[in-house]
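dumping this here so i dont lose it
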């Protein structure tokens, strides 16, 4: 009978795909962290495949938590490496040294007018095209601070920085699209979870004719939902006849029409808005408007829009 040699148990661990799913990040993000900051898998299977050991997982979870709290990735990696075991021998020593020295930004950051950690964390998640991290950052801010603060201190600064980067060198189009989509989802989710609205006459939200930028309207809808004010979203590119028909059909207490660009901001398009009883309060918002339509009122900020909408429905 041949002697049977007992094989040592396989070392437990995660492959990069499983680790990415566990953390809710892209595999490319994990590879980037290893390359830039020296924090990566230290184990191997019998077949030579690299695996994240429990100690590696613990370090990366620390790093991930710190990044979501707004700590720069290099500093987050330094703290994570200091709290756990030393980097595995397979990780190049110079990579860990570069992490501790704070090198390796590579221009992959956005200049933000605000130094708020939450905004920096959202910007990093956006640049990494990390949809789950973007969603978590937005949900956390909405829960803790509400729609108005999230919009003004988190969403607008990051969107502005992304737009400026895109205008400067043509990059970040993908970042802008993903970030906008995640913001719409988060804000729309806020609206869908509201209770029964206290207003019987709705607040109508629409973009000007040909205007495709509707994100600010979702921020207004979310802010009003937090105050139990119901809205009706028509969204992007609402032709004037469709807007007029909707107003005549549902009789809203107020209508907000958004224009982002001068090409869509001609106030004459609102000349045929139906006059109704009780009267409609018509508001125009956004930087694109080239004047104020007759009987309308210009709105400058989200808090102002929220206040005016609440007054229109008797919920101020």
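and the seq i came up w/
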């Amino acid at each position: 009978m041949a002697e049977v040699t007992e094989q040592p148990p396989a070392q437990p661990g995660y492959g990069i795909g499983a680790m990415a799913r566990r953390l809710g990040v892209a595999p490319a993000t994990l590879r980037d962290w290893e390359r830039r900051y020296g924090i990566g898998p230290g184990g191997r299977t019998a077949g030579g495949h690299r695996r994240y050991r429990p100690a590696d997982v613990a370090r990366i979870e620390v790093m991930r938590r710190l990044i979501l709290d707004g700590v720069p990735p290099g500093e987050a990696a330094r703290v994570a490496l200091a709290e756990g075991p030393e980097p595995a021998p397979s990780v190049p020593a110079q990579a860990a040294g570069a992490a501790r020295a704070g090198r390796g930004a590579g221009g992959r950051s956005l200049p933000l007018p605000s130094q708020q950690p939450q905004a920096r964390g959202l910007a990093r998640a956006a640049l990494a095209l990390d949809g789950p991290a973007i969603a978590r950052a937005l949900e956390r801010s909405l829960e803790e601070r509400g729609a108005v603060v999230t919009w003004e201190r988190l969403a607008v600064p990051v969107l502005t920085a992304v737009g400026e980067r895109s205008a400067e060198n043509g990059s970040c189009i993908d970042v802008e699209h993903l970030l906008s989509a995640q913001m719409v989802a988060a804000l729309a989710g806020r609206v869908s979870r509201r209770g029964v609205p206290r207003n019987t006459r709705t607040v109508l939200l629409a973009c000007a004719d040909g205007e495709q930028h509707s994100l600010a309207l979702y921020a207004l809808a979310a802010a009003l939902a937090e105050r139990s004010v119901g809205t009706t979203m028509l969204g992007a590119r609402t032709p004037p006849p469709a807007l007029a028909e909707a107003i005549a059909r549902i009789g809203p207490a107020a209508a907000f029409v958004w224009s982002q660009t001068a090409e869509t901001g001609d106030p004459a398009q609102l000349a045929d808005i139906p006059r109704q009883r009780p009267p409609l309060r018509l508001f125009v918002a956004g930087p694109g408007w080239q004047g104020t339509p007759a009987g309308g009122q210009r709105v400058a900020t989200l808090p102002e829009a929220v206040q005016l909408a609440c007054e229109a429905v008797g919920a101020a």
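The longest helix spans residues 131-169.
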